Structures are given as structure tokens and as C-alpha cells.
Amino acid sequence: MCTYLTEKIELDGAGKGGSGWFTLTDGAVYVDHPYHACHEHTVNIDFTNPAEGPSARVAVELTEESALALVEAIQKALASAPPGLASARPRQPSS
Question: How far, in Å, CA of 23 to CA of 28, rounded?
Fold first, then answer.
């Protein structure tokens, strides 16, 4: 069953689409019927930059298990890196 709920977030990063690299500004996550994946429902993630038009979009359709594994992998990768390493605002050195 589709939830019709979409979680939207602001992003700061880059993605590579059919026209090359573009700045990511927005993200959306929702559970719905996929367009391409061969499953009844998937966790769909859209990475976009609406200001650059429809070609500035990367779409992902994952099974629930794959989406949860991705969340866990992201958390592990961030936990293994020094704090602030991947931050847009690096930490200031301690005095």
C-alpha cells in the first residue's frame, strides 16, 4: 500500500545525471510503486535541483531491506570518519 507521504529535505552536495554533474539542493523520500524496479513497492529517493530543470535529477528505487542497509552503511561511514570531516562547515581548531 502506498503511503502518499513524502519526506522532503534540503541538500548540499552534487549528483551525476544524464547531462553530467549538477549541484543537489533538494531530496525527497517516499514509499510508492516504482517506475523501473521489478517490485510492487519500493523506497524511492529523488536527488534534485529544481532550478536546473528536469534533467537535474537522480532517482533511486530500493527495496525496504536495501534502503535500511543503505542507512546503516551511511551511519557506519560517518561514524568511522573524524568529526566534521564531511561537513560543509568544518570544525574550528581547539585553542
Answer: 15
CA dihedral 33, 35, 39, 41 (to 10 degrees): -20
Half-sphere exposure of 13 (CA within 13 A, CB side): 13
What is the widest separation between alpha-carbon atoms in the chain? 55
pTM above threshold 0.85: no
CB-count burial class (<10 Å; 0-12, 13-18, 19+) for 8 = exposed
Beta strands in the chain (DSSP E): 6-17, 20-32, 42-48, 57-62
pLDDT tens sequence across 45-74:
999 999 999 999 999 999 999 999 999 999
